Every structure is written in structure tokens, then in C-alpha cells.
Amino acid sequence: MIRVENLHRHFGGFRAVDGASLEIAKGSITGLVGPNGAGKSTLFNVIAGALPPTSGKVFLDGEDITGLPPHELFGKGLLRTFQIAHEFNSMTVRENLMMVPPAQTGENLWNSWFKRGQIAREEEAIRRKADEVLEFLTITHVADEKAGNLSGGQKKLLELGRTMMVDAKIVFLDEVGAGVNRTLLNTIGDAIIRLNQEKGYTFCVIEHDMEFIGRLCDPVIVMAEGKKLAEGTIDEIKANEQVIEAYLGTGLKNKDQVGA
């Protein structure tokens, strides 16, 4: 579904992404791991249109989407979440979800005067969709809570819910587990698996929690120094000497040998 070819993103003399090439298969939950500074979030930002590449290409279903702005990629079904959740603090959880669908009739001042019936019907349909999303994510109990009052994990669920308000093809999740307790992280993991299996979502997940990655992701791609270092199952990644050296540390290998 996504193909990245020899992608570079430089900041002056610093090469955050330095010739990365990788593919994300349709219907997969692909993990993207690596040490801090490996270029993972920058890669996400370039793919999702937040940053232009210095050079290289990005393709979505064979279409060259290199450098397209986020709103155009949103229309093509490519969405991303952020390490720090971006919610509308003063709006309720339900209202945050209802804001997502684009080109709503009520956004036009003329329509607000002369198409009130159409607006009401459209808003009711969007509200029903939002309630379905809340039920899917098991957070109906906070539907009328101000989004700014949610816990970190609930905000991550809300971000995931916003991707469900449109016809997403692929969702890039940036450190979905950051600041989230284990119980809510399991809930988020369950939701990702259900979206993948029941609704056909494709995911690419940046995460440092290897237990979480191991539960969800196959394959796992490892980045280091701005490029792809390795790819495989979680077990193959843990046994890869280059990965152990660059990211996981020799301590993990020694621990596994002692355990064996």
C-alpha cells in the first residue's frame, strides 16, 4: 500500500532520514522501531505531508503522493496520530469526533441560513456515527466529558476514534503508548486489532514498548541513522545481531540466553 523509495529529509547538515526505503503491505499492522533519533517520526511527517522530502518518493497504492499536503492525503485516506494527542480541549469527546468529517453542509454560512433541514439531518447522521465509534472503543461513558479532562490513554483512544469518522485506508500511529497505563494500552491494542481485522485498516505503528509491538505487529521494521536496518517478525528482530547492537542492547540477548 505504501512504498517509500530512497527518501531523504535533511535539516541543514543533519540527515534525519537518510535514504530510507521500505514498504507497508495492505492489511498489515507494521511496527516501526528504533533508537531515539533514528528518524521514525520524521519519516512519518514526510509520508503524511507535514514535511517536504529533500529527495526521494512516496507512493500510496501506486500513486505518487510525494510532498502532497496533509489535507489532500486525508482525502485519500492517509491519516496519522501524534505522540502528544491534539484534541479540542473545550469541546466534548463526541463533539471532537463530529468535527472530523470534511465538507459538512453547515460549514457554509449560506447553507446555515437556507439548508437548515439538510444540516440537521447530516448532523444527526454524524452524531450516530460518533456514538458508534464511542461504543466500539468502549468510551461511551466519557462521551459528554470535555476532551481536555481525559487521561492520556483516553486521549489516545479519542485520536484513534477520529480516524474512524472517515474512510481511512492507512493510519500512522506515533507512540500510541506514550504516557498510557497498561490497562488502557491493552484497550488501545484491542481496538487496533479489531479495526485491522473487522474493518480492514492498515496500520504503521511507532512504539518503544516491545511487548506491545510484539502483540500487534508483523512485520516489524527497524530504523537506525535515518534508514531501514532490518525487517522481520518480532522474534527475528530480537535475534538480529545488527538490531541488538544498534537498538535493543546486548543486555537483552544475554538475558534471553540466561533464561534459556
UniProtKB/TrEMBL annotation:
Which InterPro entries does the UniProt record give?
AAA+_ATPase (IPR003593), ABC_AA/LPS_Transport (IPR051120), ABC_transporter-like_ATP-bd (IPR003439), ABC_transporter-like_CS (IPR017871), BCA_ABC_TP_C (IPR032823), P-loop_NTPase (IPR027417)
> Which keywords does this Swiss-Prot/TrEMBL entry list?
ATP-binding, Nucleotide-binding, Transport
Entry's Gene Ontology cellular component terms: plasma membrane
Domain ABC transporter intervals: 2-250
This entry's Gene Ontology molecular function terms read: ATP binding; ATP hydrolysis activity
- Pfam families, sorted: ABC_tran, BCA_ABC_TP_C
Gene3D superfamilies noted in UniProt? P-loop containing nucleotide triphosphate hydrolases
Q: Does the keyword Nuclease apply?
A: no
What CDD domains does this protein's entry cite? ABC_Mj1267_LivG_branched (cd03219)
In terms of PANTHER family, this protein maps to: CONSERVED COMPONENT OF ABC TRANSPORTER FOR NATURAL AMINO ACIDS, CONSERVED COMPONENT OF ABC TRANSPORTER FOR NATURAL AMINO ACIDS-RELATED
Protein name per Swiss-Prot or TrEMBL: Branched-chain amino acid transport system ATP-binding protein
